[in-house]
Amino acid sequence: MDPTAAQSQQRTASAQALHACAEDRPRAIAARSREGAQDPVRLQVLNRILAAHEGYFDVQRDYEYAGRLFQGYGEFHSHGQKYVLVKRATLWEVDTHEHVFLSAVEHLDLPWLSDAVAFMKDRGLAKVDPQPNHMCTNLTLVVVADRADDDAWGLLRKTRFRKNFAWGLKGWSDLRLAAVDLSGNRVATNAAGKPLADTLRSCMC
């Protein structure tokens, strides 16, 4: 596989979608027009994030999966290939995917986050289908909270998880975590989720 092309395919639409919060103000305004006047601020922020994803992801609201309810969910799938002259002479093919789970909570504490991370590593991972052309699938959890405890904040930032399939021959899956703490006007991510940070801040505005 061409490494440069693989790097290009590895880019997921999540960061691009979140950048719409800052770059596409009409979309954000339209999202706000759908927000109920009585909606908690956390739901208003989450709706802006979902609206930004709609151009790139298949988005659902109030998504129930494996017995757990998420206020939002989106999935993205991309196929790339390189061939010589005709498609029958294919040099390589790669598939990249992303599944984004969004939750809005009043209080982000350590037990809640620990349970959510365990869920993503187990039931979230079941979303991955490592077919021969699979390169990577990002599993992303975004939490918008009225307030967040420091110990939960610390766990989120230090969490690392990568699953290799067939020793990497069938690609891998990374866990990306990001959270918004409205009371502290702050955003945190783990290492894999760093591309989300600046644009999540834009969605808070």
Task: Note the main attributes of this structure.
205 residues, 7 strands, 7 helices, single chain
Average pLDDT metric: 82
What does the largest sheet look like? 7 strands, mixed
Q: How far is it from the N-terminal to the C-terminal residue, by CA?
A: 42 Å
Helical/strand content category: alpha/beta
This entry's quaternary arrangement is: single chain
What percent of residues adopt helix (DSSP H or I)? 25-40%
Separate helix tally: 7
Task: Please render the helix and strand layout as text.
Elements: H1 3-10, H2 13-23, H3 25-34, H4 41-53, E1 58-65, E2 68-83, E3 90-108, H5 110-124, E4 134-148, H6 150-158, E5 162-164, E6 172-181, E7 186-189, H7 197-204
Parallel strand pairs: 3-4, 4-6
Antiparallel strand pairs: 1-2, 2-3, 5-6, 6-7
Helix pairs in contact: 2-4, 2-7, 3-4, 5-6
Structure report:
The chain contains 7 helices and 7 strands; from the N terminus they run ααααβββαβαβββα. The protein is of the alpha/beta class. The protein has one domain. The N terminus is likely disordered.
